[in-house]
Design brief:
Blueprint: H1 3-17, H2 20-29, H3 37-57, H4 60-91
Helix pairs in contact: 1-4, 2-4, 3-4
Main location: membrane
Keywords: Membrane, Transmembrane, Transmembrane helix
Membrane topology: Multi-pass membrane protein
């Protein structure tokens, strides 16, 4: 493994972790009101495009980073929808 591949893997790991604090916070407070659904959808769609690109060229750092971001952004979308429904049920 050369220095550039190592840097790519480190970048992939760091990129993958960017959404983790938000997922943890959202889970703890059981609210996603402050999150923009538009931003979440754009991130989710962009990870799909990056995954297609990564798999097409077999770029492991791109695949690792975007696989993790795909799962974390999908989790935040799920929280955004499910916590909103819970709040609506509680207030009804």
């Amino acid at each position: 493994m050369d220095i550039y591949e190592s840097m790519g893997l480190l970048g992939a790991i760091l990129s993958s972790l960017t959404f983790l604090p938000q997922v943890i916070r959202t889970w703890k407070i059981k609210s996603a009101e402050d999150l923009s659904m538009g931003m979440l959808i754009i991130v989710f769609c962009s990870t799909i495009v990056w995954l297609i690109y990564g798999f097409a060229l077999w770029l492991i750092p791109v695949i690792i980073a975007n696989s993790a971001i795909f799962v974390l952004s999908l989790t935040l979308i799920y929280f955004k929808v499910s916590f909103k429904k819970r709040k609506a049920i509680k207030t009804a």
